[in-house]
Write a structure and sequence with these properties.
single chain; alpha+beta; globular
Length: 195
């Protein structure tokens, strides 16, 4: 029997698995189990364990070193409105379409995720904490940083077609950079705990 804990904000859920279940459970399977407990759709959740984001859906959880007594952090919200139900526009799509898709992704997925990250970090900073949890939060901040940098790179490669699109692109860059600053500010405070 393998028992570990899922932490979602201030809530704690115990996961009990038989040895057979444990040996065959993938990250995707764990997300489905978390969905039963939280009602968060798997595509809107991120799991962190032992300082790593569990990105590979087909990877066995045991390969992420989740064992009895492990604590897995869940980040996600039931209130996501997904722009991802439609795939990202192609490179040759009109610039206005690409700008709108990036804005929707930032506003409905990344921004709420960053607000939750800031809230979890604030809670973490206000109470006794383990260095391991601090490192997990820093690593999640690194993941958010990567997502925002990718978004900036997409914006940087878009041609300016007309004045309206140029202004929209500039606003997108400004909003994305503001979120990047927020993430970096949280990471600095967390890093100070480890020094």
């Amino acid at each position: 029997m393998v028992t570990f804990e899922i932490r979602w904000g201030s809530k704690r859920f115990s996961i009990d698995l038989t040895d057979d279940e444990y040996n065959t459970m993938t990250v995707s399977d764990l997300k489905l189990k978390c969905q039963e407990l939280t009602e968060i759709e798997p595509q809107f959740m991120k799991l962190l364990a032992r300082g790593a984001v569990l990105k590979n859906e087909t990877e066995l959880i045991k390969n992420y070193k989740i064992v009895s007594g492990s604590k897995v952090m869940l980040m996600g919200s039931k209130k996501h409105i997904s722009p991802l139900k439609e795939p990202a526009p192609k490179e040759d799509a009109p610039v206005g379409t690409r700008l709108l898709w990036i804005k929707n992704l930032r506003e409905s997925v990344l921004k709420p995720d960053i607000f939750r990250y800031e809230k979890q970090a604030k809670e973490h900073l206000s109470q006794p904490h383990e260095p391991k949890q601090t490192k997990e939060l820093i690593n999640y901040g690194n993941y958010l940083h990567e997502q925002l940098m990718h978004m900036l790179a997409q914006l940087d490669t878009m041609p300016n077609v007309n004045e309206d699109e140029r202004l929209e692109r500039r606003n997108n860059v400004k909003e994305t950079e503001a979120l990047l600053d927020s993430v970096e500010s949280v990471k600095i405070k967390l890093q100070e705990l480890l020094n």
